[in-house]
Design a protein that fits this description.
The complex is a heterodimer of chains A (464) and B (253).
Chain A (H helix, E strand, L loop, with lengths): L5 H5 L8 H7 L10 H18 L3 E5 L3 E5 L10 H14 L6 E3 L3 H10 L4 E3 L5 H4 L12 H9 L5 H6 L2 H8 L1 H11 L15 E11 L2 H22 L1 E12 L4 E12 L2 H10 L10 E13 L18 H11 L4 E6 L9 E4 L19 E13 L6 E6 L2 E15 L12 E9 L4 E7 L12 E7 L1
Parallel strand pairs in A: 3-4
Antiparallel strand pairs in A: 1-2, 5-8, 6-7, 6-8, 9-10, 11-12, 11-16, 12-13, 13-14, 14-15, 15-16
Helix pairs in contact in A: 5-10, 9-10, 11-12, 12-13
Chain B lengths: L7 H15 L7 E2 L4 H4 L7 E2 L3 E5 L3 H5 L1 H12 L5 E5 L6 H6 L7 E5 L3 H14 L4 E6 L4 H14 L2 E6 L18 E8 L13 E9 L5 E6 L24 H5 L1
Parallel strand pairs in B: 3-7, 3-8, 4-5, 4-6, 6-7
Antiparallel strand pairs in B: 1-2, 8-9, 9-10
Helix pairs in contact in B: 6-7
The chains are: A alpha+beta (464), B alpha/beta (253).
Chain lengths: 464, 253
């Protein structure tokens, strides 16, 4: 028995049991023959998926892992932790239970992903050595017999191994042991050989002499983009994602990734996007090969632009959206769209800036404040019950006398979201103070039945 | 007092200066407010497209920036094409902006982590040239930064509006510092227009033109933007008693 799913494990079937004993635990157990080649193929497919979705440098870490170099790609997902969560959630949605960890080195991340409990974990580069110290030596990607040999001499955890003198260890177990240890602690570089697929559209350029000057890199970026666009044009495709990898002379790979909102085959625009991020690339002692790939390419749908004599066409701004998105991350750029809710903070949802224009809007007749506070702030208000607006209120330490008021606008809780909102009511009032400041306040409760709210007053927004 | 007829020698000089200023680029025209009182104070009869304009507030409004944002939204709503709004604090309420004519389909928000990123995006968007207007919410706007924005706006003819919004009221003194902006406006909320019944009428603002390149300063009491982004003269002042001539207030006081 090599592996068992969660349901089987709950019945006591564990990896390592003989098949007959496992069947004794559970008569309906489905047993499949082990298929290492099939597993590897599946892992390859998974690596390709990760390459398309997450980062330009992805490799298989057999038998059951993937290693991804996320430098320069995590910000597109809103940070490293958000990226890992996205990864684990997406895999879980397809029925694959996974754990992800991010650390300064491949070795440390490998150990953290397999020997800690949390489904996702981000460890800073300078702390990854300390984070793996208590793990068993098996976590260092060592062969089975070496782990057994270390156990015989009484070394079980990484910290024990780290504190021993190195020369005798190397003499007894060979250079692999100290190399794995150094790789995990970041003392020795470990290049990741990225997965490639024949169907990926990519162009490559090798240099006789290593290059490193920013303007040289920019020039060859342009040449690569030109070559790639020719390839794309042959197939009638446009790039949605572009990876530019720099293979350095010291065997490290630097990579940048840019995405576009719509398929693009415009040389100038793509070069601009890539060159915008060139400053993030550290060429080190020089770059000997540059590879430009389009992991996601989609057919370009040509639209005929009707010539309209009455008015000029509205210019296309997807180029600008791409530039800003690649610089700051996709969730930073958005449009607001109406949502089906009367509760103010739920009536707006964010959509992608290139989402189709629906022409929908909010009702124009109801007063809505220009600035909506992120959270309503409690105010002290003096008001007559049940439905009079306050005559004065104190907000942020300033007492204001209400000169004019309008309201109430009653908004009911959405019982289908939460049980607590079944009876909840908010009465919104528009208030104007002596100086002309206009405020949007609400009272919890309708003033008659106590289940609808506790009659506290809150300030929710400011009118212009 | 009727305005003095312009002398021809001044006119030729003005034309000469204008020719030097645009530096061979085509002139981009203006966006009028549609109010004769306001447009008369602006050279060319409106806000110059392809230029930076500053809007700020005083007192509470310096911190919340509600009236100044709405004023900027009203201007942006009257341009053509998409509008980019760069912010550091995402507290704009889209339904209110759609009520002054800036429909959600046209408005793209960019939420930056800091002011530097806001200025960078602001500049990038102006340089692109395909947008109708770009609005940026910043507290500090140095001469260098505003000059860069102004030059980018001139190049493409995009209307640029910097909404000045500070973290503390005390920081608002920064609004007195010079910038390269074409005009500088200060918008203060006034008590709303009186209604015959209880309730709140259309909002009123004191709109002060603090600085205007090749123009004079002025202040107006106006009614806030309607659903197409247009300001209006209050009905009780529309007979021209208050701001009828650039010199009216000064002469009467």
């Amino acid at each position: 028995m090599l592996g068992a799913n969660l349901a089987a494990q709950a019945l006591g079937v564990r990896p390592g049991l003989p098949a007959a004993e496992a069947r004794a635990h559970c008569a309906e157990l489905m047993v499949e023959d082990a298929d290492p080649e099939g597993d590897l193929e599946g892992l390859d497919r998974l690596a390709l998926w990760a390459l398309r979705r997450y980062a330009p440098i992805v490799a298989c870490d057999p038998p059951d892992g993937l290693v991804i170099d996320v430098s320069g790609a995590a910000h597109l997902f809103g940070g490293e932790a958000a990226m890992l969560t996205d990864m684990v959630d997406r895999l879980a949605a397809t029925g694959v239970s996974a754990r992800a960890a991010m650390a300064g080195t491949w070795g440390a991340a490998h150990a953290l992903a397999r020997y800690q409990r949390a489904p996702t974990l981000v460890v800073e580069s300078d702390q990854s050595g300390g984070a793996i110290a208590s793990f068993p030596v098996r976590a260092l990607r060592l062969p089975e017999e070496m782990v057994a040999g270390l156990g015989k001499v009484g070394i079980d955890s990484i910290i024990e191994l780290e504190s021993k003198p190195r020369a005798p260890l190397a003499l007894r177990f060979g250079p692999q042991l100290t190399r794995r240890l150094d790789q995990a602690y970041g003392r020795q570089a470990e290049p990741i050989d990225p997965v490639e697929a024949p169907e990926l559209i990519q162009v490559r350029r090798a240099f006789a002499e290593p290059i490193g000057a920013p303007e040289t890199l920019a020039r060859y970026t342009l040449k690569l983009v030109e070559a790639l666009c020719e390839r794309l044009e042959e197939q009638g495709l446009g790039a949605r994602k572009l990876d530019l990898r720099f293979h350095r002379v010291d065997n490290r790979i630097e990579a940048i990734r840019v995405g576009t909102a719509t398929p693009v085959r415009d040389v100038r625009r793509l070069t601009r996007l890539l060159c915008d991020r060139l400053e993030k690339v550290d060429p080190g002692f020089g770059v000997e090969t540059m590879v430009l790939a389009a992991p996601i390419a989609e057919p370009i749908i040509q639209k005929s632009i009707a010539s309209d004599l009455t008015e000029a066409p509205v210019p296309d701004v997807t180029g600008l959206i791409d530039t800003l998105t690649n610089r700051a991350g996709a969730q930073r750029l958005y449009r607001a769209a109406p949502a089906q809710s009367d509760v103010p903070e739920r009536s707006v949802r964010r959509v992608e800036p290139t989402a189709p224009e629906t022409g929908e809007g909010w009702p124009l007749r109801w007063p809505r404040p220009t600035r909506l506070l992120a959270w309503p702030e409690p105010i002290d208000a003096v008001a007559l019950l049940p439905d009079q607006p306050p005559v004065s209120f104190t907000w942020r330490g300033v007492r204001r006398r209400v000169r004019r008021a309008d309201g109430p606008e009653r908004i009911f809780g959405e019982w289908w979201r939460r049980d607590g909102e079944l009876d909840a009511v908010r009465d919104y009032f528009q208030l104007e103070d002596d100086a002309g400041g206009r405020f949007w306040v609400f009272r919890r409760g309708d003033g008659e039945r106590s289940v609808t709210g506790n009659l506290s007053w809150w300030l929710h927004g400011l009118f212009g | 007092m009727p305005a003095e007829p312009p002398r021809p020698v001044f006119e030729t000089l003005r034309a000469e200066i204008a020719r030097i200023e645009v530096n061979g680029r085509p002139r981009k025209g203006v966006l009028p407010f549609g109010l004769e009182t306001v447009d008369r104070m602006l050279p060319g009869g409106g806000l110059v497209l392809g230029a930076l304009h500053e809007v700020g507030g005083v007192g509470d409004c310096a911190v919340h920036g509600a009236a100044s944002a709405l004023f900027a939204a009203g201007i942006a709503a009257r341009t053509r094409g998409k509008v980019l709004w760069c912010v550091t604090r995402a507290d704009l309420f889209a339904p209110a902006l759609s009520q002054v004519g800036l429909s959600p389909d046209r408005l793209v928000y960019f939420e930056a982590g800091d002011e530097k990123a806001v200025l960078a995006a602001f500049e990038e968007a102006l340089r692109h040239g395909g947008l109708g207007a770009v609005v940026g919410e910043v507290a500090r706007l140095s001469m260098t930064a505003s000059r860069r924005l102004q030059l980018c706006a001139e190049d493409t003819g995009t209307l640029a509006i910097a909404v000045r919004r500070w973290r503390k009221q005390a920081d608002a003194a920064d609004f007195g510092q010079p910038t390269a902006a074409n005009t500088r406006w200060r918008v203060t909320a006034l008590p709303s227009s009186p209604l015959p019944a209880a309730g709140i009428g259309r909002a009123r603002w004191l709109v002060e033109l603090l600085r205007c390149k090749a123009g004079e300063t002025a202040d107006f009491e106006l009614e806030a933007c309607d659903e197409t982004g247009r300001l209006a003269l209050p009905a009780d002042l529309a007979d021209g008693s208050l701001a009828s001539s650039p010199w009216g207030r000064r002469a009467s006081s």
